[in-house]
Amino acid sequence: MWKHAMTLMLIVVGVALLFPRGEEKAKVTPPEEITPAAEMRMKQATLNSDMALTDELCRTQCSMELRRIAQGAKARSGEDNRSMLQTLRKEHPHMELLLVTRRGEGMDRVAAAAGSLKPDVRTAAAAHVAKAKIAVDSGRSYQSPPVKADGGTYLIVGEPEAGGSAGVIGVVRQHILQQVADHQRKNLRIETYPSDGHYKIESVDARTLQDVKVDHPEDNEGTSHYHKNQVVVRFKQVPSETDFEKMKQEIGGGTVQKLGYTYVFESSKMEAKQLMDYFKKWNVAYSEPHFLYLTNQDAAVEPAADPTAVLTPNDSLYRRYQYNLPEIATEAGWNVSKGSSDVIVAVVDTGVDLDHPDLKDQLVSGINIVDPNSKPYDDVGHGTHVAGVIGALTNNNLGVAGMSWYNRIMPIKVLDQTGAGSTYAVAQGIIWATDHGAKVINMSLGNYADAEFLHDAIRYAFDRDVVLVAASGNDNTERPGFPAAYPEVLGVAAVDANKAKATFSNYGDYISVTAPGVSIASTYPQNQYAALSGTSMASPHAAALAGLIRSVNPALKNTEVMDIMKSTSGDLGTPGHDRYYGHGLIDVAAALRAAAAAGAGTGRDAAGGAGTAAGPETGGGGTAAESASPAADAGMTQEEWEEWVRQMFQ
């Protein structure tokens, strides 16, 4: 028992890994030959790359939001403009000042404003606000260089209404740059650290519904899928039953479905735009198409006519910033499965931003082990980023795309505001997730201590058919890191955009597979997006694939899921399994096709266990005998051991 007590003092930290984006594979230095000084320089280069890409993500998102508000600004009343600006500031508190300005009117006569600036910030930003005004009056967009003030970095953005008759100017504090810098200095160890038949695509802006001229595939950003004969309506005052019957008669019959404060009308003879025009006379707060992302339906298996075809989502940041999903054939894989809400993926991490618009509808109830009286909110950013890789809402015209469209995410907060947590907390989180229905658990965290206390929790989950996935670590070392090196866990290393080993990705015989882990764009707290590097980012790609496999074939055992992931990976490095890449780079399309073709799982023991874990020769971290009977190792019966585990984690 003393071993279990000692492990309570161990600290488990989030791991993130790193390799300068774009470095050519031929220039990679063998891991054993990288000196500490060179490693530190590479870590700093990775940090700089992540910050530069995060800055670009911030600028792109801010411009898109201001462009949306700018459309129709001239025609709206001052109060309506002010209300929209206030709503935008509430959603994006880092936008400290927002202004609606009309052509020909000076800055002392803005049409609407929301927010305020400190005097020194106002002084520093004044010249760029004036330049933004000139630009939007001329129908041009504007972005300032970084502006330093009040101990932070600011950005001034201007976006015109079509034609330049009005525009919106914003002064944005880029808190996220300092947050990412602080985050990655710790994670990189730079500082000491303990379309189907029901839908059609229209070229319209998803929010303003204004027609968009599409002259090039890139112009498709902002278009959306919607049901061709349905419209979503919210009335300012609920109509009477007589009025409802009149509406149904006038639109040609169909159905009416109430969803909260809104109603979905379906017509047998009118299309969405006709329906929206019709409802204008009924005192509505709004009427809009019934967009695909509102339906939130499952699509576990969706075979395509051409199984090699790819499906490119319309998320606004996808095409430009998310190389990682095409690199592992995710788009082609979506033709087989987009996931299922029945399969839950737990994120054992720093928590998740429960209010992020690209995540909140994907979450199920979780737990805060650090503070049991609070919800599992993310106060670091790491867990939110990991969760976005797995399941950010996809094809919703917003932000980034997750690997799974429908798998649910269970936030388990085990790491505190410093990004660290005890072995006990991590173990407790694993047990809780297992007992509450998680089918896959992602652990983007690690330590070099082989803690039996944590291993007991790992075996508890493994014996209950959970697929366990973990990041290998960030020190470019062959020394095994845990939990990734446990034989029950799928250990994941990182590669870059060129499929080369991320320079600081840990390696060894325990590595099962690799996944993208360099400059990965994903969700970040406070309705933001950031680029981070690390095996922390590689691991959720593999966890998401496990969730997709269990969606397409729920009968597969956890060992069978892991075997499919390894056997379908694209070989990298030395032919066969090797210590740098494991079995190779995960291939979503190949894995899902194999899962769909596989039969039901066999060989489960009477107690519901998942069989033995893979040994080193197949990419596991130990021998099968080492994990076959934790109860016997403890000198207990199986029932006694399970009861002991439950009591220890209560």
From TrEMBL:
InterPro entries: Peptidase_S8/S53_dom, Peptidase_S8/S53_dom_sf, Peptidase_S8_Asp-AS, Peptidase_S8_His-AS, Peptidase_S8_Ser-AS, Peptidase_S8_subtilisin-like, Peptidase_S8_subtilisin-rel, Thermitase-like_dom. GO terms for cellular component: extracellular region. Residues 624-633 have a biased composition (Low complexity). The keyword Hydrolase applies. Gene3D superfamilies: Peptidase S8/S53 domain. Residues 341-584 form the Peptidase S8/S53 domain. It holds the Pfam family Peptidase_S8. Its main location: secreted. The active site is at 349 (charge relay system), 382 (charge relay system), 536 (charge relay system). It is found in: Secreted. Residues 603-633 are annotated as: Disordered. The keyword Glycosyltransferase does not apply. GO terms for molecular function: serine-type endopeptidase activity. GO terms for biological process: proteolysis. Belongs to the peptidase S8 family. PANTHER family: CEREVISIN-RELATED, PEPTIDASE S8. This is Subtilisin-type proteinase. The lineage of its organism: Bacteria, Bacillati, Bacillota, Bacilli, Bacillales.
